[in-house]
Specification:
Radius of gyration: 32 Å
Strand content: 15-25%
Largest sheet: 15 strands, parallel
Pfam families: DUF7885 (PF25372), F-box-like (PF12937), LRR_6 (PF13516)
InterPro entries: F-box-like_dom_sf (IPR036047), F-box_dom (IPR001810), FBXL15_LRR (IPR057207), Leu-rich_rpt (IPR001611), Leu-rich_rpt_Cys-con_subtyp (IPR006553), LRR_dom_sf (IPR032675)
CATH superfamily of one domain: Ribonuclease Inhibitor
Organism: Aristolochia fimbriata (White veined hardy Dutchman's pipe vine)
Number of strands: 17
Oligomer: single chain
Protein name: F-box domain-containing protein
CATH topology of one domain: Leucine-rich repeat, LRR (right-handed beta-alpha superhelix)
Shape: globular
CATH class of one domain: Alpha Beta
Distance between the termini: 68 Å
Length: 533
């Protein structure tokens, strides 16, 4: 498969070979099991399940080659597990999902999975509210080869997670989402002693020496009490990616424990200030990806500290909008510092940041490898700034402009600017007309231009009911003239705030058009026209 034939075959020979096949002969008999398993791997779940019931051989090949199971983890699954695990003993990834309103599988079911799947390396638990710390601890002792664990909306606490961290040395990827009882016993992650250890080993583990030695990715979403994770970050000496989203508590002191191996940091909707950014800059000299969205108190000073220490940055995403209120802000100074100190930048996304031509000039002059840029939600990016981008950013391949006061001259500047641009996205820019976008598409046919309909400026005659003519036809049984409306244009409505306003206007127009009109003694054609108006 995927290789050329070793010998050529003429159409006549192929046809004769087909006719030599006896009626009812199964051509897959001569197909090796390896090839059949590759075919099964290309099928969607329902088709594969159906194919596994064709014959005993297909059933066996499917069972031996299936690597992943997704199970509805209700309590009634437990009696079926022994037969299921016996059939699919080669599975290496299991996903257990259950509604939090239902009774889920319990600790015994989790132990059965660990015993029945010796090759299990990836486990995902969602809504398994009947799993306890003891069940997770027993599982960790049976599944030493676990490399990836994702837990969401479960009821176990830090004790169960710590047992995984201490007893599964191959763990590389850990995701914790909405574990409301994680801080129930005020136990931190990465510091409590693991189960079934003597006092000497307990003291060693309390220092974090045996917790998560190979952990490379940590994702925390919708968690409480940031300080619970400080010992874990201190113990994760091989950590490369840290993702924190919608988790309460101050993260400034927690980030002091980061390992110098971290290359990717993403924080969103958390309490973070310049002190946290300074902590990142002090520890993560190899940082390549920085994603900061809707944090509390980050400013130019914090970004400047990052720029001075993290010279290997390739991707920067900064969203200045914050649910905490912007007591400080990021502006030209922070962006200029980053542009001057980080020449390897390839992607820059700036949202809600009042940058000017000064920042754009610094990016164009120092970041010669910049290929992707997005400028969103700022009033300081207009036609002159977009014209500057078109003139100076010769290496740019993808550009996104969203909710900025640009108009047709700014878009038309891209007709000759940015020679390497392959994709342009314009969203919620009311000053852009369809004519300028059409011209850009005509002049640069290789450029993919994506413009949401909410970006176009709608005039009074372009509200979806334009060029409608009310033509009176012979009356109906009630004596009223029938109307015939003709529309030469069709407008698509996007799901934005502007589209909601447009939708309400269209609804009002539609209600007006539905009002009954009664004929008078005058010309019926004139009556229809007046009623339409």
């Amino acid at each position: 498969m995927g290789q050329g034939a070793s010998s050529s075959c003429t159409p006549k020979q192929a046809t004769s070979a087909i006719w030599r096949i006896r009626d009812g002969e199964d051509l897959t008999v001569s197909l090796p099991d390896e090839c059949l398993s590759m075919v099964f791997a290309k099928l969607v779940c329902q088709d594969r399940n159906a194919c596994s019931l064709v014959c005993k051989r297909w059933n066996l090949v499917d069972a031996q080659s299936r690597q992943r199971l997704v199970l509805v983890a209700r309590s009634d699954l437990s009696p079926l597990l022994p037969a299921l695990l016996s059939r699919f003993s080669a599975v290496s990834a299991v996903s257990l999902k259950c509604s939090r309103k239902l009774v889920s599988v319990d600790d015994n079911a989790l132990s059965l999975i660990a015993r029945g799947l010796p090759s299990l390396s990836k486990l995902k638990l969602k809504g398994c509210v009947d799993l306890s710390d003891e069940g997770l601890s027993a599982f960790s002792l049976l599944c030493l080869s676990l490399s990836k664990l994702s837990c969401a909306s479960c009821s176990f606490a830090a004790k169960g997670v710590n047992s995984i961290l201490s007893n599964c040395p191959r763990l590389q990827d850990l995701t914790l989402k909405r574990l409301r009882k994680l801080d129930a016993h005020n136990t931190t992650l990465g510091s409590s002693p693991p189960p079934q250890q003597d006092s000497i080993e307990q003291s060693k583990c309390s220092e974090g020496s045996k917790f998560a030695p190979n952990l490379e990715r940590l994702c925390l979403k919708d968690q409480h009490n940031a300080r619970l994770f400080a010992p874990l970050l201190r113990a994760a000496k091989a950590l490369k990616t840290l993702i924190v989203c919608r988790s309460s508590g101050s993260w400034d002191p927690v980030l002091d424990n980061l390992s110098p191996t971290v290359t990717d940091i993403q924080v969103e909707n958390v309490q973070l200030s310049d002190s946290g950014l300074v902590a990142i800059s002090s520890a993560c000299y190899a940082l390549e990806v920085l994603y900061i969205s809707r944090v509390s108190d980050c400013s130019d000073a914090g970004l400047s500290a990052i720029a001075v220490s993290c010279r290997k940055l390739r991707k920067v995403h900064i969203d200045a909008c914050s649910k905490f209120g912007n007591r400080n802000f990021v502006g030209d100074h922070g962006v200029m510092s980053m542009a001057a100190k980080c020449p390897h930048l390839q992607e820059v996304v700036l949202m809600g940041i009042p940058i000017t031509v000064l920042s754009l000039d610094a990016l164009a002059s120092n970041c010669l490898a910049l290929e992707r840029m997005a400028l969103c939600n700022t009033d300081t990016v207009g036609d002159s700034e977009l014209g500057f981008v078109a003139a100076k950013f010769s290496a740019l391949k993808k550009l996104c402009i969203k909710n900025c006061p640009i108009t047709d001259p700014g878009v038309e500047a891209l007709v000759v600017g940015c020679p390497n641009l392959v994709k342009l996205k314009v969203k919620r820019c009311r000053g852009v007309s369809q004519a300028s976008v059409s011209r850009l598409r005509v002049e640069r046919k290789a450029l993919v231009v994506s413009v949401d309909p909410g970006s176009f400026s709608f005039e009074e005659d372009e509200m979806g009911i334009e060029e409608e003519a009310a033509i009176a036809e012979p009356g109906d049984d009630r004596g009223r003239p029938r109307r015939h409306f003709t529309t030469t244009t069709t407008h698509l409505v996007c799901g934005s705030r502007g589209a909601s306003l447009l939708k309400s206007k269209l609804r009002s127009s539609k209600m007006l058009l539905r009002r009954p009109s009664f004929p008078s003694t005058s010309n019926p054609h004139e009556d229809a026209t007046h009623s339409h108006r």
